[in-house]
Amino acid sequence: MNDHKNLIGGEWVEGVDVGVNLNPSNPQDIVGRYVRGGASSVDEAVLAADAALDDWVYASPQVRHDVLEKTGAELMARKDEIGHLLSREEGKTLAEGIGEAVRAAQVFKFFAGEALRVTGETVASVRANVDVMVEREPVGIIGIVTPWNFPIAIPAWKIAPALAYGNAVIFKPADLTPGCAWVIAKTLKEAGCPDGVFNLVMGRGSTVGERIVGHPRINAISFTGSVPIGRSLALKATEQGKKIQMEMGGKNPMVVLDDADLDVAVNASLNGAFFSTGQRCTASSRLIVSDGIHDAFVHKLSAAMAALTVGDALDPQSQIGPVVDQSQLDSNLGYVKLAQEEGCEVSGGERLDGAGFFQRPALFVGATNEMRISKEEIFGPCASVIRVRDYEEALTVANDTEFGLSAGICTSSLKYSSHFRKRAEAGMVMINLPTAGVDYHVPFGGRKGSSFGPREQGSHAKEFYTTVKTSYVAP
Asked: Which three-class secondary structure state does DSSP give residue 128?
């Protein structure tokens, strides 16, 4: 089995050691061998990016458009193959894996268009015979650090805008899921991305990630990952004056009111809480249900959970794949035990037989918002059910969290849906829809402990990947 190498300055280069990428559905199945770089690899990548940056910045936007368009077209053409790889290395079901590959392709194609739509302003000066122009320029060299749970979509929605707006990139994917990252690197290279403009440095966060954050020539950091790492990274980046964008955790509420359509509420909660094995920062991990519908909702949701097929990600019959690795599975099972200790009635949650890291979805009935299971992000197929009296209490409980990424409500009331949309303390609000599941052409991000810095995705991405210059011109 050949080693997949890092891409630095247009060349495939060795690292300091090699990691083995395993299939969480069957850890005996080796997906591939991927080299790990070190701090010196980052230094080499920065030198290459620095040398390539000027030509990329001042190239015609058509050049950037063509590279991104070709990349998106190739990813789309290979969606089945890439989706298969994604499901093998991360554990999403095959349908979800292919869907994520399609999303990555759509993102690249969208930002191909954005490369041609960088606009500015001409403003009348208060002084006679002076012209004022406001323009957007690239930030410079961007360090990109991504998580394992969306191994091609999240890299795409960071890399594509960075390149579209004329920046160079140093990209470190999650050590658990390097396969899809390597595919992006290969596809960009074959699409004609100039040597050094895009660099892939796979490796551990403690070495590669630390050096990306600390390198003085890297101008900005875009990070998606855990809250503790994000907070540490923010301090280091701020001390160095780097521009920073972070997406971190979520403990997202789904409010279900008495007047909700029961089928809609159950389907939205089932999807939001348990699909993708609950390994989404937008997952509905707190189901806040009012008195009148509570028992019927729990009964129907429990039955729907029990009917889900948990199995090998590549099996077309599987609706829920494995947890990503043993460490995450152990953490999930620890929260199931904690839910019992905190006094919840637990439905499901047990480890399932098989070679992979399989867990049945878990529902924690009788939870309160003060319990740890309702406060801490579990990042697995586990959801707390919190009973409330009415809408007012539901809104209070929904907002009583350190996070603020996504929030949902199921109701047939225009009054309550409108009020919730305005009062929910979250960056994204879903009405009669799962809290997970977003479009690629609109902004993504949250409030409070969930996000920091400008939004990701859509035309709003320019706020992070560009800087504003104001020019005054006299004849």
From this structure: coil
- CATH 3.40.605.10 residue ranges for the chain: 3-248+450-473
282 neighbors 323 (Cβ within 8 angstroms): no
pLDDT digits (tens, 9 = 90+) for 283-329: 999 999 999 999 999 999 999 999 999 999 999 999 999 999 999 99
Q: How many CA atoms lie within 13 A of 258 on its CB side?
A: 8
Which amino acid, residue 284? Answer: S
Secondary structure percentages of the chain, helix, strand, coil, to 5: 40, 25, 35
- What tens digit of pLDDT does each residue of 17-40 get? 999 999 999 999 999 999 999 999
- Cβ contact 173:184 at 8 Å: no
Question: Whole-prediction pTM value?
Answer: 0.96
Give the span between the Cα atoms of 25 and 93, in whole angstroms.
10
Instruction: Give the other-Cβ count within 10 Å of 77's Cβ.
Output: 11
CATH class of 252-431: alpha beta
Active site includes 247?
A: yes
Per DSSP, the three-state class of 250 is: coil
Q: Exposed, middle or buried by CB within 10 Å (0-12, 13-18, 19+), for 403?
A: buried
Q: Which of 180, 193, 281, 410 is catalytic?
A: 281
The class that CATH gives domain 3-248+450-473 is alpha beta
> Which amino acid would we find at residue 336?
V
Alpha-carbon span 167 to 11, nearest angstrom: 19
From 89, 247, 342, 456, active-site residue: 247
Q: Retrieve residue 180's tokens.
A: 């899809």
Residue 211, Cβ density class (10 Å: 0-12 exposed, 13-18 middle, ≥19 buried): buried
Element (H, E) at 326: helix 326-341
